[in-house]
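Students often ask why we bother encoding 3D structure as a string. The short answer is that it lets us treat folding as translation between two languages. Here is a chain of 290 residues written in the first language.
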Amino acid sequence: GFLEFDNNEMLVKGKVNMMDGRMLVDGTTYFEKKPRLLAKLTCEQIDIREFFRQAENFGQDVLVDKNIKGKLDAKFYIKAFWAEDATFLTDKLHVLGDVGILNGELVGLKMLYEFSDYVKLSDLRRIKFTELHNFMEVKKSKIYMPAMFIQSNAMNLTVSGSHSFENRIDYNVKVNAGQVLLNKFKKHNSKLSPQKAKKKGWFNLYYRIHGSLEKMVYGSNKKRVKRELKNSAARKRRIQKELIKQFGTIVSAKEPTDWEDVIPEYEEQVDENDDGQEDEVEFIDWDSER
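And here it is in the second language, the structure alphabet:
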């Protein structure tokens, strides 16, 4: 790699083997009255646990290095800004990312314990997935995640939402109802084989999880969740378009067709007189099994 100074600009470009993988950096720092950084970062087969550890878990304690395993392939386009006194301007940080994790695991993630109570799954202490892929955006101190399909040993679900730097969350979750019901009567899958997307005979359930991490609110709200999942597609397209401009070809992951609603009474009906208001939130209180 190389480091080059040109007037008030510092250019850094190169690659380094690290964390059992490789990282490529291409960035420019502008030493102006208010400094700024533009950078492209590519991760190839990085150990994601070590990545989180060395990044000090990105200053948060929700998903930490002890909670995640797998190989990270990712591309990030970063815009960072500082004030005249060199104070980092968190609200102006803007990051676009294309993130993929292969052969991953979520281990001991306490946030999922709360969700397991809600859908009454017996054990979510160790979730294994073959592949997870999505785009992400950091903007105005929030992390935005467009809809992504997660296929795991515990269940299949689609998730979208936002997570603020102050740990305020707003997630939309689509869960395969058939798998949820079956898992009430089955022991934890010791083989940890990801479940296939189910279609015939099943329907999907829609939940919103929001609030603070200390006091999360869970509710069933199909109309809102389906709308938010659909609307997130626009953010995904915008992120992908910009990343293609910066990096070239970017792969777009799609939800399997076997993950669509198939029972007519659960299909979304378009109401021409819909005033845009949310359905009344339904709360479910199921006894939990640990």
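Translate back mentally: The radius of gyration is 21 Å. Keep this in mind for the problem set.
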